[in-house]
Amino acid sequence: MERRLFTGIRQLYSSSRKSPNEIRIKIRMCDLIDPDVLRHAVDTTMRRYPYFCVELQKKSGQYVYVDNKRPVVIYDSIDSVELNAEESNYHMIAFSYHNNWVVLDMFHGLTDGTGAYEVLRTLLYYYCSEKYGVKLSPEGIRVVGDEISLEEWEDPIEKASDLPSPVRSELKKALNIIENAGLQDDVIKTVYSVVIDESEFMQFNVEKDGSPGTMTALFLSRAVAKLFPNVEDPIRIALCVNQRKALCKPKTHHSVVGAAMLEYKDKIRDWPLDRQATAFRGMVFAQTMDETVLAGVSSFKGVTEMLLSKETDQERLDFMAYLGKMATQMLTATVSYVGKANFKEAEKYIRDFRTWTGGTGNYLCVEIAAVNGRFTLDFIQPFSSPILVNAFLKELSDNGITYDLQDVSVLAVPNIRLPWSE
Q: What is the pTM of this model?
């Protein structure tokens, strides 16, 4: 079977050795990983996701996925292997393990966080059932033997028609943390992982009319405003939006993510926190109505078609580099929250959870995960300075929210072999 890259083509051309466009999810289990059980669980899991068992090829000037019957690689190291290369059996997905950590690495053009969570639910179901000799419930989990509907396979954005006209908006250049903090020479990509009790944070959100994603974006905005009180550039946070509902394609595996732009306007800066949270919730509500989301899909589809109309790899790379530069200018930071992971009965075997992304651009990205009663906020930075994390943690403290700064790591995401750089 052969499938042309459409939605994922932008992630391919925006990937680089310096910033591989990849999702890396690290799960620390309560016990040491059993490699034989993991091998069996991965093999079984991948039988349920044939659309992820693919090899990237170029045919007639276009990139396509073709079926890849080679085993998906499991590497005995936390570092994993290069994707789309001989060492990964030319897959765009790989697993690794070390001690009690198991890691999923996946090209972001294959799927998004929602799709990656589906794979992990299946993997954890099979792994924990065999590892612990228990019969976990398969309810709500995609398992081998399911009928795999056409909806799971098809690219909903490529197939979408009768979309509303894209909304044109001229955004002013956003506040840039690197420029204003003088961090141009600080180029060590670093991840700060912060854990908050789920029940405590959810109760806080209920009391303040917030939600995990909007409240994180609001605390981040407040922190930036206090760090740079005299900067006139707007503070603008992109909150990732799952487009499946608007597309009426809840089962699609494709990467279908838009964004709601949350601007911390001058007029709300003196408001109490709960009123600010209501304002941010209102911005999200307005920008996640189906018609608005579909207008964003229309814009995305148009740009993708424009990219595909370019004749050479270099033209496409230049086009995506231009779009990336524009995005960097328009955003202060990005916040991504897939929603509660809901790994079902397997959650009790999970100790820690990390979500890293490689191609986050030249601005901060906060990845939020809700697993086993805890929120983990991974601050993925293009610099090592703790200036922004410290300011964010002060916002938590000032509002009575307890947290644990669990660890600080250099961002290490395996490379993706890109066909034009062979």
A: 0.96
